[in-house]
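Researcher: Sequence recovery benchmark, item below. Answer with residues only.
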């Protein structure tokens, strides 16, 4: 009778259905995780040798074998689903190269469980740095056009109704600021998850006198997860990262929705080049912004992956389980790939969207979004409470609408008529001041309070945002350099061990 290829406890070969539907799909990502798995093996090997847990000649042979596998690449490793997963296939190939006695010694003081947990953290760390780099590009695109269009007036909306004039640059500055918070969340996730599980073994540690701090250092971790059960039983860093990607996706979908509305013929505030559009198979006049629909649609998919992962993990025991630590993490890798694609598309949108400045300015002057400015004028010049001014202006807006007049046609006489009806006396506003407050460009420049759209406020804010972005870029680059340096030290240590 044939036995299991990985255990003498199991007296039967793995069922074909289990191989086909569980183990074979797990091996599809072998090439992507091969380098990280090799690093884990090198770090563990160096630690075992330094702690005297394997003999020097065995460590040298293992080091040469691991380096030879690294040089040959993942394609040289036969993948057999009957060996269950990447680690056993890697180990089987190593044993085939250097022999069972020496090759089998690499597993001293560890488990597949802590190897898998470490592999997940290494991969997640790399993914989050890639997402941060992509986010920095999007923020750069937003800031570049925010400065370019800092004075391009357009209507601002609340409840999708004309509210107050802003500038397109001001809108982009807000987009960049929100994306900066997404970066902060991901950076915090990177810091908290950069702890090594290696050496936790199955979940209860090991009787061998290993040095977990050393393997953590060799792999570029800031330390190690102290409790071995938590180290292998938790994938909260995956759920945390996935939740941050979901928040990011929800936000980019809102931005895409703005552009989707603004680019319609009815709004005509924004235009896109034909290179980012599609057409209709039947209606020749159509210019469909597929990129915006993709961004909106994929955000729902990413949120769904978060919900799926959360529901998978919630019913598992707090220890190492296949459903919690394997099935519960699957959605993150898919979400991360989709996020990177969508961020490139979002950067394209922010770079190529162009405001129809004339249309936007005209709408802002006609759609009564300057009415708040008139109420503010009345408060300042007529010494009324804001609520009284609100009633007067509301009546004036209603009068203008009934007469078919745009906002900029409201004059002092109309305001006095409404004031008489509301308050019993006219206000006698200066006609020039009234015209100025109803001018959308002047209205914007009057809003110079902290965080407002006036150029006196916006331009310094853009400068600060640019400095923050530069610092964030540098921090991520420094993080990459630190990890690259750790990897070089690991490589040199392995080569030195191999030369003994």
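Model:
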């Amino acid at each position: 009778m044939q036995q299991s290829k990985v255990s003498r406890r199991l007296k039967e070969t793995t069922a074909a259905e289990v191989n086909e539907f569980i183990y074979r799909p797990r091996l599809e990502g072998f090439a992507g995780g091969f380098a990280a798995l090799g690093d884990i093996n090198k770090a563990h090997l160096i630690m075992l040798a330094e702690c005297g847990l394997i003999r020097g000649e065995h460590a040298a042979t293992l080091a040469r074998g691991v380096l030879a596998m690294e040089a040959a690449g993942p394609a040289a490793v036969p993948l057999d689903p009957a060996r269950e997963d990447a680690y056993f296939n890697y180990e089987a190939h190593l044993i085939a190269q250097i022999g069972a006695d020496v090759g089998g010694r690499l597993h001293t003081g560890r488990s597949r469980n802590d190897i898998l947990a470490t592999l997940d953290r290494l991969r997640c760390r790399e993914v989050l740095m890639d997402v941060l780099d992509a986010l920095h590009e999007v923020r750069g695109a937003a800031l570049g056009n925010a400065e370019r269009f800092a004075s391009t007036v357009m209507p601002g909306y609340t409840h999708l109704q004309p509210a107050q004039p802003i500038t397109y640059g001001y809108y982009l500055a807000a987009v960049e600021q929100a994306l900066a918070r997404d970066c902060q969340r991901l950076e915090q996730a990177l810091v908290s998850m950069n702890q090594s599980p290696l050496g936790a073994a199955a979940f209860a540690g090991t009787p061998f006198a290993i040095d977990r701090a050393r393997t953590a250092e060799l792999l570029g971790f800031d330390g190690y997860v102290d409790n071995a059960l938590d180290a292998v039983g938790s994938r909260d860093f995956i759920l945390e990262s996935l939740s941050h990607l979901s928040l990011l996706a929800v936000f980019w979908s809102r931005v895409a929705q703005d552009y989707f509305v603004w680019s319609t013929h009815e709004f005509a505030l924004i235009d896109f080049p034909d290179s980012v559009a599609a057409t209709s198979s039947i209606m020749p006049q159509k210019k469909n912004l597929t990129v915006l629909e993709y961004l909106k649609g994929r955000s729902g998919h990413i949120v769904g992956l978060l919900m799926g992962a959360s529901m998978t993990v919630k019913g598992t025991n707090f220890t190492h389980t296949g459903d919690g630590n394997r099935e519960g993490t699957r959605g993150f890798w898919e979400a991360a790939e989709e996020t990177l694609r969508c961020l490139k598309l979002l950067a394209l949108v922010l770079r190529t969207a162009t405001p129809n400045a004339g249309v936007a300015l005209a709408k802002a002057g006609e759609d009564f979004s300057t009415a708040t400015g008139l109420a503010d004028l009345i408060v300042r010049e007529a010494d009324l409470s804001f609520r009284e001014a609100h009633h007067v202006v509301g009546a004036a807006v209603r009068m203008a609408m009934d007469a078919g007049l745009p906002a900029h046609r409201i004059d002092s006489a109309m305001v006095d008529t409404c004031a008489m009806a509301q308050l019993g006396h006219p206000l006698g506003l200066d006609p020039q001041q009234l015209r100025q407050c109803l001018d959308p460009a002047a209205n914007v420049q009057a809003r110079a309070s902290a965080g407002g759209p006036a150029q006196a406020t916006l331009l310094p804010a853009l400068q600060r945002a640019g400095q923050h972005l530069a610092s964030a870029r540098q921090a991520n680059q420094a993080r990459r350099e630190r990890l690259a340096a750790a990897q070089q030290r690991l490589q040199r240590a392995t080569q030195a061990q191999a030369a003994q």
